[in-house]
Amino acid sequence: MKKRLLGQGGFTMVEVLVSMVILTVGLLGLAGLQIRSLSGSHSAYARTQAVQYAADMVDRMMANCDAAIAGSYNLALGEDPCDPLPDPLPVACEDLIEWHDFLDGTINTSGGLPGGQGSIAVDANQVATVVVQWDNTDGTSSSVQVQTKLQ
Question: Out of 85, 86, 95, 140, which residue is the most buried by the measure of CB atoms under 10 Å away?
Answer without folding.
Answer: 95
